[in-house]
Amino acid sequence: MTHIGIIGAGITGVTTAYALNERGYEVTVFDQHRYAGMETSFANGEQLTASSAEVWNKLSTVFQGLRWMMRRDAPLRMNPMPSWHKYSWAAEFLLGIRNYRQNTIETVRLAIEARHHLFEIAERETIDFDLERRGVLLICKDKAGYNKASEVNKLLNEGGLDRRPVTSGEMRQIEPTLKGSYYGGFFTPSDSTGDVHKFTRGLADACVRHGVRFAYDTEIEKIVPKDSGYAIRWIPVSRDDGGANANEWRPIQVDGVVICAGCASRNFAAQLGDRVSVYPVKGYSITVFLSTPESQAAAPFVGIADDATKIVTSRLDRDRFRVAGTAEFSGFNRDIRHDRIQPLIDWTRQQFPNVATDRVVAWSGLRPMTPSMLPRVGPGGRFGVFYNTGHGHLGWTLATATAQRVADAIARVMPVTKHVAANPAVVSSL
Ligand SMILES: Cc1cc2nc3c(=O)[nH]c(=O)nc-3n(C[C@H](O)[C@H](O)[C@H](O)COP(=O)(O)OP(=O)(O)OC[C@H]3O[C@@H](n4cnc5c(N)ncnc54)[C@H](O)[C@@H]3O)c2cc1C
Fold it and tell me: What residues flank ligand 1, with Cβ below 6 Å?
């Protein structure tokens, strides 16, 4: 039997587990949390959006970012404190400007491919994740923003996306709750929104039904190459024995390993002799609870993307409205800052004045971002090591496609030797 260990039970790890299980592998997924989807795949913008496929490696974005550095409430902020990780990443990001066009087109194609897998899996496994297939509308306040979006639109169309320009009148027909004044916008009917956490949890349950094992509450310390395969050294997250039983935590032996550890992937790659440049780009979201019929009627169902503020929204069923945005370069810091949350609340009040913001839950997450903004998918330097990580601002959108790609890459070099019978046990203590 060929046994693959997956590090991380976020959206990338769980979709990879599902794809490998489909191909007949024995799969164990490790995560330090008690459930799947508890880190960045928890409360993001929730848009399944090929229309946001533009990579950020562009000179105009860099200059805009520099101007924003002066403003505390700016959509993008970089903590100027020196850090080798941050500045080496930034240098590679600048080099990526030359690949802006091809990387944007590649990302759109991947996002379009991902939708087919996602909808198929959700239907097959009957996963309820508050999916809304009503499209995503980009709103532009002024002519300059509209013209900029027009240029991007050419690339998105070249990648095969059905995004089209719309007038402000058409925008109100598409989403009648819009109240502000707009120059125009772009609508992508094939984009959608849905709850990434619910999907990840639902897919993890499906994986268990099909025989995938999950080792939760399990922190992976080290992955040690052996003569054949890898020993995964772990420690339980809740160590109430003070470490006295450490000898009982025997390493788990696997034939191959897939790193899907989000922002921690860089460290695992370094242990395994690979360089995977992933920087934690922090973002924030608020979940507005729509407790009254008035609020429910005043919040949009179509996904909204605001070009000027870089804010995105999603309607999650009748009574939740997610608003997300901001990009902060300040390392592995997950603090929820009031001065970053307030602009999201203010924006909601301005755009949708009849939505009550009396019950709002704030969240922050770290986007695992590569300098090229393309995920790292495929084999590492050692036989049996693979990566499916670095999905940045689009992990929810892209994961079902990259899971197929990494599973195919594994199948090419490590064929399944024996199909493993389903074992529905969830391994919570190994
Ligand atoms: C504010 C915000 C808004 C966003 N909006 C969108 C959006 O609208 N659409 C979209 O497509 N994407 C969006 N994203 C991006 C998306 O959320 C991420 O790309 C995606 O969740 C990354 O998934 P992942 O599986 O790579 O990482 P994660 O979900 O972080 O999973 C990694 C897992 O690895 C585990 N792990 C790490 N180290 C260890 C260890 N040592 N031992 C055990 N386990 C370990 C972690 O516990 C974690 O569960 C947004 C992100 C943010 C922050």
Answer: 7-13, 30-33, 38-41, 44-47, 49, 219-220, 260-262, 264, 283-285, 312, 324, 365, 367-368, 389, 391-397
